[in-house]
Design a protein that fits this description.
Elements (H helix, E strand, L loop, with lengths): L1 H10 L10 E3 L9 H14 L2 E8 L2 E4 L4 E4 L3 E8 L3 E7 L6 E7 L3 E6 L4 E6 L15 H8 L17 E3 L11
Antiparallel strand pairs: 1-10, 2-5, 3-4, 5-6, 6-7, 7-8, 8-9
Length: about 180
C-alpha cells in the first residue's frame, strides 16, 4: 500500500497544476547612465532627415467612454516625413485606390482633405475643438509619434525605468462578454 501511495505521488496524482502568466525578460541587457541614453536618442533623431513609408492603416474610433469601438476598413497609403516636421500622409480607398485622405503639415499648421466627403479641415496641429467623428481629430502628431522617437530637449524631465513583459496564457475557453 505504501509503495502504491509513493508511486501515485511521484506520477502526479496528488498534485495540481494551474496556468500562470509568464514573464519574459528583455532580450538585450544594458547598463548605462541616463545622460548616455539621452545622447543616443538625440543622435538617432538627428540622423533621420527623411522617411518614406508604404503603410496599411486600420483606424478605429470610440472606446470605453463611448461604450463601443468602430473599426474601419484598412487603408493602404504612404507617409512622407522630412525634417524638421514636414509631413504628408496619403491614404487610399480599398479596391478603388482613389484618395480617401490627404494630410499635409509644416509642423505648425496642417490641411486634411477628405475627397470622398468633399471636406477640408485646416488648422493648427493641436485639436482645439474636438469633433464627434474621431477621424476628424487626426493630427500630424499621431503619425509622427508612432514613427519617430524625438530627441530629448533640455526642458524635459527624464527618468530611467525598467519593466518586464507579461505574456498572457492561452485560454481554451473564450469568455462571453455581453
Amino acid at each position: 500500500m505504501m509503495v502504491l501511495a509513493l508511486v501515485a505521488g511521484l506520477t502526479g496524482c496528488f498534485s495540481t497544476t494551474r496556468v500562470v502568466q509568464k514573464t519574459q525578460a528583455p532580450e538585450i541587457y544594458r547598463t548605462t547612465s541616463v545622460e548616455q541614453l539621452e545622447k543616443e536618442i538625440s543622435d538617432r533623431d538627428a540622423a533621420i532627415r527623411t522617411l518614406n513609408a508604404q503603410v496599411l492603416i486600420t483606424a478605429s474610433t470610440g472606446g470605453a467612454k463611448e461604450g463601443k469601438v468602430i473599426e474601419y476598413t484598412s487603408f493602404r497609403g504612404y507617409i512622407f516625413v522630412r525634417r524638421p516636421r514636414d509631413l504628408r500622409v496619403i491614404l487610399q480607398l480599398p479596391v478603388i485606390g482613389s484618395r480617401a485622405l490627404d494630410m499635409v503639415s509644416d509642423g505648425k499648421e496642417f490641411t486634411l482633405l477628405i475627397p470622398p466627403k468633399n471636406k477640408a479641415i485646416v488648422g493648427t496641429n493641436e485639436v482645439t475643438k474636438p469633433s464627434d467623428n474621431g477621424l476628424y481629430n487626426l493630427r500630424p502628431a499621431v503619425f509622427l509619434d508612432s514613427l519617430l522617437v524625438p530627441a530629448v530637449t533640455s526642458d524635459e524631465y527624464v527618468a530611467l525605468t525598467e519593466s518586464t513583459r507579461v505574456i498572457q496564457p492561452e485560454s481554451r475557453h473564450h469568455a462571453a462578454i455581453e
